[in-house]
Amino acid sequence: MPAIKFRGVDFIQFDSLLTEEERLVRDTTRQFIEDNLIPIIEECNRAGRFPRELVKPMADLGFFGASLKGYGCAGMGNVEYGLMTQELERGDSGVRSFVSVQSGLVMFPIYAFGSEEQKQTWLPAMQKGEKLGCFGLTEPGLRSNPGGMRTRARKVGNEYILNGEKMWITSGTIADVAVIWAKVENENDKIRGFLVEKDRKGFTSDDIHGKWSLRASVTSGLSMQDVHIPEANLLPKSDGLKSPLMCLNQARYGIAWGAIGAAMSCYDCALQYAILRKQWRDQPIASHQLVQDKLTWMISEITKAQLLVLQVGRLKDAGRVEHQHISMAKRNNVWMALECARLSRDILGANGVADDYPIMRHMMNLESVKTYEGTHDVHSLIIGQSVTGIDAF
Ligand SMILES: Cc1cc2nc3c(=O)[nH]c(=O)nc-3n(C[C@H](O)[C@H](O)[C@H](O)COP(=O)(O)OP(=O)(O)OC[C@H]3O[C@@H](n4cnc5c(N)ncnc54)[C@H](O)[C@@H]3O)c2cc1C
Fold first, then answer.
1. Which residue, judged by its Cα, is nearest atom 12 of ligand 1?
2. CA 20, 369, 392, 151 torsion-angle sign
């Protein structure tokens, strides 16, 4: 079986809905992933290794904070940003997760809620990949319900003292700074964001081992025991639970596009394999109706997912997107991608479980993507609340 090389997926001339600049971003990212990530990703996945050597080249291409304006950031439109995450995740969800966290969950809150001094200190360095960040919202006890967090900040003089634990934190041990969400005791437990540098006394981070998903991404636990930080480390415009939720909206939007990339990778691999693989009277397995039905389901769902997220992106560019629109795109597209991975794995038979092909890796990765940034079911509840007006959480 010759090596299968990705050829792109476009059934209904989707490209004609994109501007020249959008196609350029997509094609540049695609080429970068083809040249730099595809050759090493299976080794990284086996070894559980984050390909840190790609941080600088990704920064040089403007991937970090790509949709932010100023501070050296690329100022991409939302569709350009989405097409970039699509191509990153066509390579690997773990690498896309790293970029999403650096951009949507660390640079974005500094940009949206930070002081000018915080922006000047962190954003240019993070854009260049010289400084890395992580986002600490999830806790060991409470995750889908961030409002119930236990991490506390107490203002004493001109400092805050932080105590608490964060769990399942992407890039936790490689980050120079953590955006930590905590309830402020002196402000009636209002949730606010803090910048905690990794070398603060009382702050520790440890990697979570034994993950069978997102193995090319670092996932960690963070612990804070009487961590003193200056009051200048408070993100001054952070204001309650809506602030971390705004960050999650940014990241969820990127995931909705990213999942299409993983689905495209699986579908294109299965399609090429089905045409090459011969069984029964020396006919390609693609000649069987049941195999064609699976391919038809996949290309139909990928196409619908593209149209859904393109509309959400256009609404976002126009300043008219609602959080439930993003929930629908994240929920649908990740589910769709996971189903594509399972059908593609099936089409490859035994070869589908081997890492000579990208499918099983995508499938395992997508299980995390289905859970993080709001689980599939949590997004059902968000959409349900939107259409019924009734909170079912
Ligand atoms: C690889 C990885 C990386 C991550 N990176 C980060 C990160 O960088 N920063 C961060 O803060 N977090 C991160 N997370 C955490 C992630 O956001 C949480 O795992 C997620 O929010 C779900 O929380 P949980 O795992 O505790 O599940 P739970 O909240 O325990 O949910 C378990 C199940 O119960 C369901 N459920 C929960 N509440 C309800 C309800 N009201 N009604 C119906 N069903 C419900 C859920 O849908 C799910 O199916 C990461 C997770 C993973 C796996």
1. 138
2. negative
